[in-house]
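Dear Dr. K.,

Following up on our conversation at the group meeting, I've run the structure prediction for Adenosine 5'-phosphosulfate reductase from Corynebacterium doosanense CAU 212 = DSM 45436. I'm pasting the input sequence below exactly as I used it, so you can double-check it against your construct before we proceed with anything downstream. Let me know if the numbering doesn't match what you have in your notebook.
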Amino acid sequence: MTTSINLLSGGGSRQYRDPDISPEGPNSAAPLSDEDRARNENLVERYADELYHADAATIFEWTREHVHGPTVITMSMENTVLAELAQEHLPGTDLLFLDTEYHFDETIEVADAVEKRYPSSRLIRTHAVLSRAEQDSVYGKDLYRRNPTACCRMRKVEPLQRHLSPYVAMIDGLRRDDGPTRAEAPALSLNKTGRLKISPIITWSLEETDAFIRERDLIVHPLTLQGYPSIGCATCTLPVAAGEDPRAGRWAGSAKTECGLHTD
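The predicted structure tokens came back this morning:
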């Protein structure tokens, strides 16, 4: 039975679904085969410590040598470093962009530019089961204000999991320098479905990332030049002051620090 709550003041009668209950439809990855799961577990056990301090080239080359099965690169479009590194080390690897429908216009423009600059890699744009308007209708307007965790789950975490089904491994742009919640993140681990989670630029600082972008003349997200070192949805991201935690502008004013993509 669907649980509903009344979110309207003044005695309104409109009933909305409990945001802890996701919309009907696929919201998780298909199980890996026992063979793939066992192989991934063995790889993490053997190599996680060795790769903990490894550089990006080493981790990409390790991926090419040891991962036997389809791999996907997840991109937030905050920068395009992973697309550039993949072209060099893993050409043709799929790129996955979570289009939440709440992005800055500039983020969508970067995604369009990536598709043109790296045509050998297929850019997959994921969407939530419900459109933004449908979510407002089912859960009440601006869920991101009332329950940002539920909004992130429905528009980021579940779409990502659903689109991981064809792959045995995913590559992300996680960096320990991003903030205290990521300070000891591994370069190689397993997600909850047993897929490899690989973070090639895990040791990079923001300064090293920016230097690589300049050296390669990469596509630049314009907001990173306007005080946005970490960029999420436009509704939930603010610029930060010089010297602040790069992620201080994410879900500003709330206790939330992660969308769930790197903790699920």
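Two things stood out to me. The longest helix spans residues 34-51. Residues 1-11 have pLDDT under 50 and may be disordered.

Best regards,
J.T.
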